[in-house]
């Protein structure tokens, strides 16, 4: 449950959190609770919803997913081979109008 809470949200490029590992490496726990101000969090998700609707309308990065996503005979993906060396994507930023969106 804490792992899902600590996944980076679309406006964050990277999210670091303290973790606790089992000595065998079999399990990892997130030792941190995300602290957010609720109105700010809701405003950020509202902005992301608008940006994702625009992106979906323009269809630049959205693709239809085939189901089932994994075949039973397909070997599991290795984190070190497939994900470790990949740079994270840019965080989603809304382009603001300087005249309309002044503080």
Automatic annotation (TrEMBL):
GO CC annotations on file: catalytic step 2 spliceosome; U5 snRNP
Domain PRO8NT span(s) in chain numbering: 1-102
Swiss-Prot/TrEMBL GO biological process terms: spliceosomal tri-snRNP complex assembly
A GO term for molecular function: U2 snRNA binding
Protein name in the entry: PRO8NT domain-containing protein
């Amino acid at each position: 449950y804490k792992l899902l809470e600590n996944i980076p949200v679309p406006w964050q490029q990277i999210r670091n959190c303290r973790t606790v590992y089992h000595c065998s490496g079999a399990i990892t726990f997130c030792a941190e609770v995300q602290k957010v101000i609720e109105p700010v969090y809701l405003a950020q998700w509202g902005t992301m919803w608008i940006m994702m609707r625009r992106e979906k309308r323009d269809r630049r990065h959205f693709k239809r997913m085939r189901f089932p996503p994994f075949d039973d005979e397909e070997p599991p993906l290795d984190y070190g081979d497939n994900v470790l060396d990949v740079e994270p994507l840019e965080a989603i930023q809304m382009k603001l109008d300087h005249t309309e969106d002044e503080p």
